[in-house]
Specification:
The protein is mainly α and 257 residues long. 60% of the residues lie in helices and 9% in strands. Helix 2 runs parallel beside helix 8, helix 3 crosses helix 5 and helix 8 packs parallel to helix 11. The longest helix has 29 residues. The N terminus is likely disordered.
Length: 257
């Protein structure tokens, strides 16, 4: 009897001496649950408002690069020396990817990554909408229709559990600050950088400045990452120039003193 009591006391003491294992909300719903395109789409959304934090024009260019990588991983295209060549004669089994594949195969000339990222952006927009609907079906996002002054329906995609997105943010933070051997982690970090989603990962401006150099190193360390980044930055520069020209015509003089 005494031995049993003593044993129980020792067992309780041992339990209280062990550090508690903290399981974060949404545990088991980490980055591994999402593919690269889904991860980028989730990071580009405002968790509470359900709106995009970046112009979808630039997001679609990034997603076009992701789709090219997906085709490459399946052996359907080859990316060598900044050029995209056809690979196996199979289909991707995805209507959007197959449409890109047909375009690549029917071109007489071999074109660059830059060319195909720009040409695939429209289809990437369709892929983005399909990804959003898929995340809604899985209970990750909530789709809500809002009023539109133009008459066409507008939707907001609010996160049902922001902890999932927090997993992704922590993953990108760790990749930039510490490094990662996983190619998918580095690719996601480079896309976040190219889409100017810095503040979603590093809300503190000082942190962004300190992380800018290793972040750039990730982007410049891969030919494909650099190509996607260059396409997005060129499009941003073009849009800025058009806006500047429009303001100049509107006011009759340069809006910048």
């Amino acid at each position: 009897m005494i031995k049993a009591i003593v044993g129980g006391v020792l067992l309780m003491a041992l339990c209280f001496s062990l550090p508690a294992q903290v399981v974060p909300a949404g545990a088991g719903k980490g980055p591994e649950e999402f593919d690269l395109a889904e991860s980028l789409v989730l990071l580009s959304l405002n968790d509470h408002k359900g709106t995009f934090l970046v112009d979808t024009e630039y997001l679609d260019l990034a997603l076009a690069g992701v789709m090219l990588v997906e085709l490459q991983e399946r052996g359907l295209i080859e990316i060598e020396q900044n050029c995209v060549r056809t690979g196996l004669s199979d289909t991707a089994g995805d209507p959007i990817l197959d449409e890109i594949l047909v375009k690549i195969r029917t071109r007489r000339r071999i074109h660059s990554i830059h060319y195909w990222i720009e040409r695939s952006a429209r289809l990437a927009g369709k892929k983005r909408l399909a990804q959003l609907d898929g995340l809604v079906d899985r209970g990750i996002l909530e789709k809500r229709q809002v009023r539109s002054f133009l008459g066409s329906p507008k939707f907001r995609y609010r996160a049902l559990d922001p902890q999932r997105e927090q997993w992704l943010k922590e993953q990108v933070r760790a990749t930039v600050a510490v490094g990662s051997q996983e190619e998918s982690d580095r690719f996601l970090a480079s896309l976040v950088y190219s889409c100017s989603l810095h503040r979603t990962v590093f809300p503190d401006g000082k942190e962004i400045r300190s992380m800018r150099r290793p972040w750039r190193a990730i982007v410049r360390g891969n030919r494909l990452y650099s190509a996607i980044d260059r396409v997005i930055r060129e499009r941003k520069s073009w849009d800025d120039m058009v806006q500047y020209s429009h303001l100049t015509n509107l006011y009759g003089t340069s809006p910048i003193p």
